[in-house]
Amino acid sequence: MPASPPSRSDHQRLLGAAVLWLLAGSALLLSTLVPWHTAWLGWTPAFWLLGAPLMVLLALEPGRLRRLPGASRARRPARDGLVWHDSARRAATSRWR
User: Fold this and answer.
1) Model's pTM, two decimal places?
2) 51: which of 47, 67, 82, 95 fits an S-S bond (Cβ 3.0–4.6 Å)?
């Protein structure tokens, strides 16, 4: 039997827990209470304090990843008359004359 998706309140609770986990992990790593890498544990602290909550957030909100690059990049209008290959074509034809 497939599992039913979480309700809206459960989804918000999971999202809040993942964000809190990510913020607490970031604070621990930035305050150097927990090192990023150790000889005994390797990269495990960094994974469990940053990587795992990021994966949980992306699993809960997969559409947010697609919206972020477009939101941070401003749309520039296309410039008419500027063609990158036009000058290369003129230079190539002038050499053979």
Assistant:
1) 0.58
2) 47
- Whole-angstrom distance, CA of residue 5 vs CA of residue 11: 9
Under 8 Å CB-to-CB from 8, ≥6 apart: which residues? Answer: none
Q: What is the DSSP string of the chain?
A: -PPPPPPHHHHHHHHHHHHHHHHHHHHHHHTTSS-S-BTTTBTHHHIIIIIHHHHHHHHH-HHHHHHHHHHHSPPPPPPTT--HHHHHHHHHHHHT-
- What percentage of the chain has pLDDT greater than the value 70? 64
Give the pair of three-digit tokens for residue 71. 């939101």
| Dmax (CA) of the chain | 76
Per-residue pLDDT tens over the stretch 28-66? 888 988 888 888 888 888 888 889 999 998 888 887 766
Report the C-alpha gap between 44 and 94 in whole angstroms. Answer: 61
